Amino acid sequence: MKRSIGCRSFAVMLILVLAFLATGCGRSQGGYKDDVLIGFFSRVDAEQGKVIVDISDWAHRNDKGPGQNDWGAEYHGRLTSSTIIRNEAGETVDLATLKEGQRVRIYPPDSSTDKLDELVVLEMTEQEKYKRMGWLAQGKGRLHTVVVSGENVDERYDDSKMEQEIPSALKGGLALMGYVPDHNVIIDVKGQFELEAFPAFLVFDDEKLVYKTYDTAELEKFLRSQ
User: Fold this and answer.
1) Helix, strand or coil for residue 105?
2) Helix-strand-coil percent breakdown of the chain, rounded to 5?
3) What is the pLDDT of residue 163?
4) Which uninterrupted H or E stretch holds 118?
5) Distance of alpha carbon 202 from alpha carbon 142, whole angstroms
6) The predicted structure's pLDDT at residue 12
7) Phi and psi dihedrals of 213, rounded to 5?
């Protein structure tokens, strides 16, 4: 399960109670600050009346060494009649319009109470969205292949099928995903890249999309040429 953490040590009730020891209130790993709670919107729990935010990156802001990101953290903010949902310009935002993966800032930042006073929706660049979706290659000169399957069984790919048809994709980094119509995520992959059929094969470098095809032979040819 996940946890919520602030600028000092304390226990926070979530689905599971976890504790985290924070040090100082300055800027640390990944540019996160101890006293500025930033995460990524996950969903609204209507029954509990809470907003669920993934704060894993923020929770690991002071970590050092290997294996530092081997657990996740969530913030569960209780909505009240006074909770403010706005963008950076101060304009009111309808909570129902938030996309999964949208970066948000939370007040109060120490989470000593689950009462959510304010949620600020932050702007994201296309590159930041691609990174959040897990599509970008890890490092310059590398390529990462994303296989987008449809809802039909014959459109789906798995590692064994990829190994047979596109072995080069396994060497450079691979992600398998299914396209779900109307899924409320920060990027509608079908619309964003004008996909006309499934499965579709997208290749990213560490910044952007560099190749798109629907043909495994063409994909293998492209990857081998790089």
Assistant:
1) strand
2) 20, 30, 50
3) 73
4) strand 118-121
5) 14
6) 33
7) -155, 165
Supply the pLDDT for residue 214.
95
3-state secondary structure 145-203: EEEEECCCHHHCCCHHHHHHHCHHHHHHCEEEEECCCCCCECCCHHHHCCCCCCCEEEE
Instruction: Give the separation between CA 207 and CA 222, rounded to whole angstroms.
Output: 18
Whether the per-residue pLDDT at 67 is higher than 70: the answer is no
pLDDT at residue 197 greater than cutoff 70 = yes
Is residue 150 within 8 Å of residue 66, measured between CB atoms? no
- Determine how β-strand 200-204 pairs with β-strand 209-213: antiparallel
Kindly state the tokens that stand for 104.
């948000």
CA distance to 141, 162, 206, 217, 225, per residue, from 134 (Å): 17, 18, 11, 24, 24
DSSP per-residue letters across 38-72: EEEEEEEETTTTEEEEE-HHHHTTT--STTTTSS-
Per-residue pLDDT tens over the stretch 37-57: 999 999 999 999 999 999 999
Tell which residue, 177, 169, 156, has the closest CA to residue 203.
169
